[in-house]
Design a protein that fits this description.
Layout lengths: L2 H11 L40 H12 L13 H12 L11 H4 L50 E2 L5 E4 L5 E3 L13 H4 L5 H5 L7 H5 L13 H13 L10 H10 L11 H15 L6 H6 L8 H10 L19 E3 L19 H4 L7 E3 L21 H9 L1 H6 L8 H4 L6 H9 L13 H12 L26
Helix pairs in contact: 1-2, 2-12, 3-9, 3-10, 12-18, 14-18
Length: 485
Amino acid sequence: MRYTSFLISLLVVSGSLPLVGCGGGGGSTPAVEDVPVDEPTPPETPTPPAPPSQLDLQLAPLLTNANAGTPPTPPSHPQALVNLGKALFFDKILSGNRNMSCATCHHPTAGTGDDLSVSIGEGGSGTGAARVLGSGNLIPRNAPALFNRGLPNVTRMFWDSRVSIGGPQGTTLNTPEPALNGPSPAAGDIASQLTSALAAQAIFPLTSHAEMRGDAGENEIADAADNLEVWRLLVARLVGTNNGTEGGIAAYRTLVQQAYPRIVDFDDVNIGHVGRAIGAYEDQAFRALNSPFDEYMAGALDAITDQAKRGAQLFYSRADCHRCHGGPLLSDDRHHAIAVPQVGPGRDFAGEDTGRFAVTGNPNDLYEFRTPSLRNIALTGPYMHDGAYTSLAAVVRHYDNPIRSLFNYDPLQLAPLLQGTYDEDVSRNQARADALSGILRPAPNLSNQDVADLVAFLESLTDPASVDLSGEVPAAVPSGLAVSD
């Protein structure tokens, strides 16, 4: 991580560390013939770096104590695997009705989300904030951003972490599909290819009727008996059957051969190869590790504004944000109940989403959701598991006093489609308040200036390379289906 150079740079530019230069020895200088010569132009003296301000000196130990820093950049994936994953990511052939792709809800031009509080799934039309419901399905939750989700230490996916990878060797899956789980999974041929949580996550929206599968009676994928059958039929769409001699798409067979050269029989291709390729593309395309704050931690003291520095001081001290959003990824990758107002259709039933509890059945997990990373957070609104807040300032104000925010929530900040879905049930909201994590007590009592400073800091976490990812969108995909929605 680069944070160690931050402290060194402060010491150097403030004069606390000596700079070692070159010097000559003593003794006499030999005589030189007095011959006129052209004098070389002296090099320009570089502008010395600005000395650290009081803000910098106050912030440095806070960053060190919080283990702030930039994660190391992992090795690149094989380009052939990335090429296959990119084609699959944008190709609607992976949806039952051939009308949605991964990019529908995770579009590069929408911060790898969809700019919606909760996603519009199967049956909707359009891209990003312009997507309309029509006769489609509202998805219960906000589409999580994909930035940095493929880094080695990221082991949990979805808001409730229902997909994770771990175990003694870091390769044991825990997913909604029992055949993939445990140290000796029944579908070991698939599980062996799912080498990251991101790869495993990629294959589950394909099984959701509301997201990509479609409704029963509409297509053969929707009518499949179970997840394994869904995945088998989708792979047959891609590469065909009988070693690729019946059905399938020739261009996908070529991409698969290039990505997995050890495969000699296309009947050996499974959904694990699909998930692994999609995960490789997402990891490679959506890494975001060079924000102004990263440059600041590397020693460029003018990379962020004084307002952002004041926000960072708050973040790592009185506001206590780093207790959940600490470390290099600005996330503890754990689950917390933060009394978020419930909007959207609900996941457990209408108006209700109990979060992690629905996965574990543990009452201690009621209303808990995974802590998202704050890297590129300014690009990934709306915020919270259900997109209840549409601005960073509103999010910061919620954390200042979550219970007050819960009971005084104004649904008019939502898109008109969702304003009537706000759950006003007093008993359920009281249960959400009662579940509030102790880590959020007491309130830090933030002023308006504090909120503005914190937002300035959060905005400094944006990698400039992520601002315009329109170049990631291909002109065409192997199926020949339209790329745009």
